[in-house]
């Protein structure tokens, strides 16, 4: 439903703008981000382009996790990485069992998800900040 509300708002904006581009997100009932869309307004019509790359800002650091969904390996980019802070990732299965802890030592870190297809939870710890991601393995 929230997706439709977002699209309604963008449609209303289309009345005032002939062209432009915006980013829209869809969320599940628990508030977890499910997908990201690049929404382009052209001549009053809306074009949606789903994207496998999602980025967020956390304490002046840009976190990018891709591809999602994945066939097994994901890349986590953190720009800029603050080396003075402890940074690590924790991967959980959908039941909440800890599968892996990996220290982040460079701006680009790869993580292999070796389990069965399904939903995994990734927590990225940057100092005292935590970013939570839902990862789908196909």
Structure description:
This protein has 138 residues and is mainly beta. The chain has two domains: 50 residues, no CATH class; 84 residues, Macroglobulin (MG2) domain (Immunoglobulin-like). 11% of the residues lie in helices and 58% in strands. It is built from one helix and eleven strands, in the order αβββββββββββ. A four-stranded antiparallel beta sheet has the order 4-5-6-9, with no helix packed on it. Strands 8-7-10-11 form a four-stranded antiparallel beta sheet, with no helix packed on it. A three-stranded antiparallel beta sheet has the order 1-2-3, covered by helices on one side. The protein is globular, with a radius of gyration of 17 Å. About 5% of the residues have low confidence.
Characteristic key phrases:
11 strands, 11% helix, mainly beta, four-stranded antiparallel sheet, Immunoglobulin-like, globular, single chain, 138 residues
């Amino acid at each position: 439903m929230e997706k439709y509300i977002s699209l309604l708002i963008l449609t209303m904006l289309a009345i005032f703008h002939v062209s432009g581009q915006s980013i829209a997100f869809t969320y599940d009932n628990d508030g977890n981000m499910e997908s990201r869309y690049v929404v382009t307004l052209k001549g009053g019509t809306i074009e949606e382009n789903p994207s496998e790359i999602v980025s967020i800002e956390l304490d002046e650091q840009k976190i990018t996790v891709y591809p999602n969904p994945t066939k097994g390996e994901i890349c986590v980019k953190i720009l800029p990485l603050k080396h003075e802070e402890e940074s690590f990732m924790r991967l959980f299965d959908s039941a909440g069992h800890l599968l892996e802890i990996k220290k982040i030592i460079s701006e680009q870190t790869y993580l292999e998800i070796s389990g069965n297809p399904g939903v995994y939870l990734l927590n990225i710890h940057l100092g005292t900040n935590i970013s939570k991601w839902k990862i789908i393995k196909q």
